[in-house]
Specification:
Distance between the termini: 19 Å
Number of helices: 4
Largest sheet: 9 strands, mixed
Helix content: under 10%
Order of helices and strands: HEEEEEEEEEEEEEEEEHEEEEHEEHE
Number of strands: 23
Radius of gyration: 28 Å
Amino acid sequence: MKYNPFYLLSFLLLTLSGCIDEYDADIAAEDSNLLVVEGTICSAELNKFYLSRTQDIKATYGPRMVTGASVSVHGSDGSEYKAQPTDDYYACWIDQLDPDVEYYLHIEADGEVYESEPQLPLRTEKIARVEGSQPTPDSNIDVLVTPEAPFDASKTNYYTWSYIETWEVHPDYTTYVYFDVNTMQKVDSLHLFPERGWRNALGTNILVEASTHYDGQHIQKLKLYDFENSNERLFFKYSGLVQQRAISKEEYEYECARRQASSEMGGLFTPLPSALPTNIRCLTSSKSVIGFVGCALNTAKYRFFLDPRDFSLNHPYQGDKRIWLNDCTIDDCVRMARQGLWLCEWDDNRMNGGGPLNTAWATKYQLDVRERGAYTEEPDYWSLNEDYSY
């Protein structure tokens, strides 16, 4: 997951600008326009490396990708993987890293050469379990992760987790009819709108943790994130894909430092971005670099499912938001259809003793899950009911 916290320089300048007296931050030129590098060297996946630069608070646009750079992964065995630029990042596929070879990232950008420290790829334990927990009927649902027992229980182990969510979406209402304005008649239709769809979301948190305070250095039931019990993600069926990666102590310290710096919102005693720990250096000048490049032999993944029947959920009562027309005329139907509304109910009693025609109408947003950003092709794992680790 891409995570860019390096607005710290902007936060600092913004905080200072709010003082009563004007204050000159006196930020050295070498601490501005710094290269920011994000990414991890990993086996068996597309490696993405994000290159940007720190910005002044006066900038009118967000961080932009550094273009025209040469980016590649090198190994101490002479191997090289050239990364190609995309719209947002530089990418290269690496089939399998050698556990006995040290790897590093090599960057040539704007006349400077940068490299990360060579490092052996770290092995990551599989994930033993991901589960949902609701302590009380009114509480949130917590998502908890437990890795398998560590390879080495004699030392502190460090990890990072990210996740991707998928949940089933249903429309507010279903309809099996529509009104044809050309023929001015009701038409039966069984497949006018999809009965359900699915949405995906990239998790908003990247969590890091050390095993220091766990028995046997074995992290257990660590909370990754939670839901309110009224969250629509859990109303039908929910699945998450958790990704776990072992990291070095240095990368863990870097992640903690940047989180602390961001949370302090650029206070007067917050270090400048160039003071954050990093394993990347400029070989051609004394310029500072922001970022940390990790190296992983594998990424453990765990697909889990949450069944709404296992939790106490709060479905807020919405009431019937459709528009009902009682004693409706054909002209009324034409008018509603031309306003972009869709026929939901057709209760016609005109042939039974001269009764009225009653109709109900809804917006396309209420009827079509695609209007809510859902897709209708069922994910290949959706029919599964058991969690699995790989």
